[in-house]
Write a structure and sequence with these properties.
By secondary structure, this protein is an alpha+beta fold. It contains eleven helices and six strands. Helix content is about 45%, strand content about 15%. The protein is elongated and about 70 Å long.
Length: about 260
Amino acid sequence: MPTPLQLLQRLDAIGASLRASGLARALLALGSVGAETERLDEYSDLDFFVIAAPGMKQRLIDDLSWLSAAAPVAYHFRNTKDGHKLLFEDGIYCEFAVFEEEEMKSAAFSAGRIVWMTEGFDESLCIPRVPSAPFRPDDLGWAVGEMVTCIYVGLCRYARGERLSGTRFVQSFAVDMMIACASRFEQERPGLPDRYQNERRFEQRFPEMAAWLPRIMQGYDRVPESALELLKMIEHYTAVDPAMKRQIVTLAEQLIRER
């Protein structure tokens, strides 16, 4: 795996390649290689934006020689209209997008770090202007309703043999909602939130709730057990409708007995 120093050096090399190409105005590093380098480790990847020179966006997207000039490329594919996911031969992985200067005014991103820029570039374009935040429900009662009904529907799907669907309802949809509500139930550890995904660094942000995860996500063959544990977790933090609880417990226990 690449070292943190190698990751930062690769960004510098990409910046130097862009400067030599004359096709870009700036390179903005994001995430753990951007403004959050205290999180940087050997499992990090390179997330960055390239701010194109006028009229050069499509060329930078279509011709990746500016990246292969920094280091040999093993694999890439265009995952959005604006950019690629890419693996260098030495194992450094990156995801990037290319924007015109005007597009940066409406782009959603977290605060980053300018690695390189041309003289006279407007640095304010690299300051996020579009608010972004992961989904967090305003109405806890609604969220709990979504959780328990997803659990029940998942058990019904599982019971009729739709095990994949049942697994997703219980261990994905319901669990995702529980994670979205985490800050209602436990004080979040400071300095670690992610602006886009509730599950990022969840174990460090909410250690008490994270201790439940092995019990509520037991896998494809243990959906009923996972459902019962998730119900217990919800009840640990808030009230559950008695009628829904009875339906869930009855069906889950039946499925376990019949196994």
